[in-house]
Each structure stands twice: as C-alpha cells, then as structure tokens.
Backbone:
C-alpha cells in the first residue's frame, strides 16, 4: 500500500535529506516549505532516482495560522493515506533578545512551535487509521539548556522536546510512534539563516546531515534521539552540570 509522509521544511537541510532517505525506502512524500522552486527541484531529483514513489510539493508559509489546515486540506483532497509526519521546519536568530525585532521572534515561535502543535493535532486522526504510523519532531540539543544570545530559539526547542515526549506516551496506545530528534550542529543553511558564524568550534563538531537523518530514521522507536557522540556528551553535561554553569557555557558558545 502506498504510504505518504509529510515533511515540513523540505526545501533544504535536514528536511531535504529526510525526503531523499524516505523516498529510497519506497515512501511517497508531501514536501512543504515556502520556496516552491526548491521543492520542485528536489521533487524532480527524487523521481529521477526513485521512479516508484510519488512526490507532491506544497508552498506554505508556516507562519500563517491556517497553514496546518491548508496542508491537511491538500492531503484530504488527494485522498492519500498519511503514514508519517516530520515536523522539521524551524529557524533561529542569534543576538540579544532585546535587540532582535519582536516580529522575528514571534515568527520563530509560530514556525518552531505553533505549526508543529497544529500539524500534530490535525494529523493524529489520519495517522491513527494505519499501522506503523509515526511523528518525528525536530528539536535540538539546545532543548536541554537555556541559551543566552539565542534565547527564544533554545526555549522553543525545549517546548518541542517536552511536548513531544508527552505525545510519545499518549499516542503509544494508538500505535503512533513519536520521536524527538535532537541534533547538534549540522551542516545546513541553518547558520546563515540564524546569522551565526561557523566558528572553529562548529567546524570541529559539525555533523553531516546524511548521518543525522540516517540515525533519526533508525531510532524512531525511541522517545529522544540524539545523533553523535559529542552531542550525547553535551546533553549529559547539560543535565548534570548546575544550570548556572550550563547556561554560561551556552552563552560562551553562542557569543
Ligand atoms: N543545522 C543545525 O545545526 C540544527 C541543529 C539542531 C536542530 N536543527 C533544527 O533542524 C530543523 C531543520 O533545520 P536545518 O538545519 O535543515 O536548516 P535549514 O537548511 O535552514 O532548513 C530550514 C527549513 O525550514 C523551512 N522554513 C523556515 N521557515 C519556514 C516557514 N515560515 N514556512 C515554511 N517553511 C519554513 C525552510 O524552507 P523555506 O525557507 O523554503 O520556507 C527550510 O526548508 C530546524 O527545526 C532546526 O531548528 C538544526
């Protein structure tokens, strides 16, 4: 039976990589982002490599309060069975909270949090109809600590982690797997979007997006998925260090 997987933020980075790896497993895809031409380029590339899958593209701005409903309306209009949702779209903005335009920070909350909550809620009834369905919510290792100089971004990822862990327990009985992917620095467009320089520290510890997504898909049965040894150690450090020290370290890294 054809399986459709929805991927938000599929026009670059981790979302694009999820698209390629899931298509290689024989899944049909609905790719969502604002840059339609990028989605269509990825669509053509996937179909060239995997003629057996169908790829649909939808240009949606997740800042829009009705974006979740727009996506569900599209899925319903196509009569496609939804088997998975990857809430991946997100962005950060480096700088002091008081210096960054409030509108930019509110946009971040809408994309990183509101759209993810809305899509999860709207998708659950569709996912519950099929065996083996799943949600992957993309958080970050930033979810485990306060992040001065990226305060709203870190806090948004803490929300994603807490929310998704709760869903993991709630949806178990309906047979829907929920996992929270918590990557560390990964080589994508994220850093340019967030106005973050790729520091020597970044160059040393950055992961390849292929490895991150491969690990995420292989560990979907886990509630929390942290790819990479250094990232696992960072999370362990954030858990066991006093928060006064952990947040100072995060501040030092984000300066
Ligand atoms: N890269 C890292 O180091 C890292 C580490 C931890 C967590 N993450 C998380 O990983 C996820 C993916 O990011 P990435 O690293 O792959 O960065 P990326 O290459 O910048 O990709 C971000 C994606 O989000 C989409 N997006 C942003 N705003 C949107 C909006 N308003 N409406 C619809 N789509 C929107 C972008 O598409 P359009 O611009 O075409 O709309 C793009 O496809 C994010 O949630 C990020 O927080 C990344």
Residues:
């Amino acid at each position: 039976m054809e399986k459709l997987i929805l991927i938000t933020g599929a026009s670059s980075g981790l979302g694009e990589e999820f698209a390629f790896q899931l298509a290689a497993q024989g899944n049909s895809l609905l790719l969502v982002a604002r840059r339609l031409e990028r989605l269509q380029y990825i669509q053509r590339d996937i179909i060239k490599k995997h003629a057996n899958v169908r790829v649909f593209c939808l240009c949606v701005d997740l800042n829009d309060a009705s974006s979740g409903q727009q996506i569900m309306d599209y899925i319903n209009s196509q009569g496609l069975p939804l088997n998975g949702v990857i809430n991946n779209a997100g962005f950060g903005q480096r700088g002091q909270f008081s210096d960054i335009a409030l509108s930019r920070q509110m946009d971040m909350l809408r994309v990183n949090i509101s759209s993810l909550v809305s899509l999860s809620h709207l998708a659950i009834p569709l996912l519950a109809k099929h065996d083996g369905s799943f949600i992957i919510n993309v958080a970050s290792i930033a979810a485990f600590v306060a992040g001065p100089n990226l305060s709203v971004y870190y806090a948004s990822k803490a929300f994603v982690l807490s929310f998704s862990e709760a869903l993991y327990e709630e949806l178990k009985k309906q047979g829907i797997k929920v996992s929270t992917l918590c990557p560390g620095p990964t080589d994508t467009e994220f850093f340019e979007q967030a106005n973050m320089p790729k520091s020597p520290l970044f160059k040393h510890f950055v992961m390849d997006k292929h490895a991150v997504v491969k690990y995420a898909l292989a560990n979907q049965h886990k509630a929390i998925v942290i790819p990479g040894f250094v990232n696992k150690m960072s999370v362990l450090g954030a858990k066991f260090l006093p928060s006064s020290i952990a947040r100072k370290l995060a501040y030092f890294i984000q300066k």
